[in-house]
Amino acid sequence: MEGQVSYGRQLSLLAGRFEDETAVVHVSPEGEERLVSWAELERRANQVARLLAAQGVGQDDIVAVALPNSGAHFFSSFGAWKLGATVLPMRWDLPAWERDRLLGLARPAAVVAEWDDGPANLVTLADLDASRSLEADPLPDRVADPARAIATSGSTGSPKLIVTPGSGIVNADPTADATKELGLRDRATQLVMSPLYHTNGFACINGLMNGQTLVVMERFDAALAVDLIERWKVNTTIAVPTMLQRIAQLPDVRSRDFSSIDSVLYGGAPVAPWVVRVWFDLIPPEKLWFAYGGTESLGLAMAHGGEWLEHEGTAGRPVGCEVRILGPGGEELPTGEIGEIFMRRLDGSKTFDYIGATARTTEDGFGTFGDLGRVDEDGYLYVADRRVDMVVSGGANVYPAEVELLLTEHPGVGDVVVVGLPDEEWGQRVHAVIEPADPAHAPTEDDLRAFCRERLAAYKVPKSFEFVERVPRTAAGKVNRSAIVAERTGAASS
């Protein structure tokens, strides 16, 4: 359409303008950096597009990109967009059974991955490298519609695809207007800490299409992330609570230089107040932004740290949407009462499509991510936990996130996940899986139980504790609670 620019065309324009300036910095887990210029990104995208076209990829097809964070991921994604195809970023390390179920839902025209047992339409890293011999001139302009899909197994382990709204047009992302308040400088440098298969990671495309330089970590490491903030004078990043916490726990973090930061956008799950206050020592509160939303683009809530200080624990106020808190029977609950969070966009635009699942919506168009929360008298939203994660112990509702946030305040706890395990007496018992901050000096069960009893109602105190070397989080900071329960009970996790 007139006045609108496709991803492919925008990349060509940026490459023509900035040429040998850096577009993407790929940072290995060891800290080694591989710089990709705008000209190289454009050239390689055009070459990979021709490779994919030879594989039969065309307008409106799906291309699955199952690669770690790397330059090759960006070459493949933009190569697909140059052909008008939808990009589906996937975890590269999925077990074959789960991987094949997702591919069965997506039916991609090509899969870019390094798998020994991949499908017939597999494009390997060797194939990508060989494409360097192909023509690198721009292709006819095409618009992908939709531009993106995200694969998820949710909390239940059942695979689904979320086909997100918006064509491959610059600034067509429905959250673009809301994030303008972040106060980013022109041509900012963004640190990408999340994997590109996750919404938080893949959202970096919006910044890249506006001329940002992306410093992309192949795998998150807190100490390396701070080194990169200082070295590249990073202006903005998106983080999940685990990332904020691990950075806050660095012993020298208050002596590090965060002066280049314009904004840190956080979302994904509740974050412990102590973590927030450490970050307020690192950057001004107004530069730390809290957000609640999701890939489905049902709606968005946001608040900056100054607002959080007046409404501790909030995820923000609705931006361009309405929020309702509904009870089990679909009734609207009064202010302050916890129920399921439903959202509806005010502009009435299309939100998302599921493949492999059915959306839960009200008759008047409100949808839900499945989270529980409340709204205060000033309209600020507070997220309690996911509905499916709630533990019912002795008839009382326990929100694991609340117990987890409390336990992270114990100096001996490095990470924790709380689940409900079957119990003959209580129905479910609250069980805490603990990753010690220092394995050589792990806290005892009695220490942790006493710590909880001083701060939590008795029914919320974990009845059992377990110590592990590492809490099993994904690179995106998520845990599969159903799998954790299944490992401890022998039940099926999906």
What does the model show?
It contains 14 helices and 25 strands. It has helices at residues 7-18, 38-54, 71-82, 96-106, 125-130, 199-202, 204-208, 222-232, 241-248, 273-282, 305-310, 400-407, 445-453, 481-489, and strands at 22-27, 33-37, 62-66, 86-89, 110-113, 122-123, 149-152, 160-163, 189-192, 213-217, 236-239, 263-266, 288-292, 300-304, 317-319, 321-326, 339-345, 353-355, 371-375, 381-386, 391-393, 396-398, 413-423, 427-436, 464-467. The strands form 6 sheets. The protein has a 9-stranded mixed β-sheet with strand order 2-1-10-9-11-12-13-14-15. Strands 4-3-5-6 form a 4-stranded parallel β-sheet. It has a 4-stranded antiparallel β-sheet with strand order 16-17-19-20. The chain is globular. The model has no long low-confidence stretch (mean pLDDT 90).
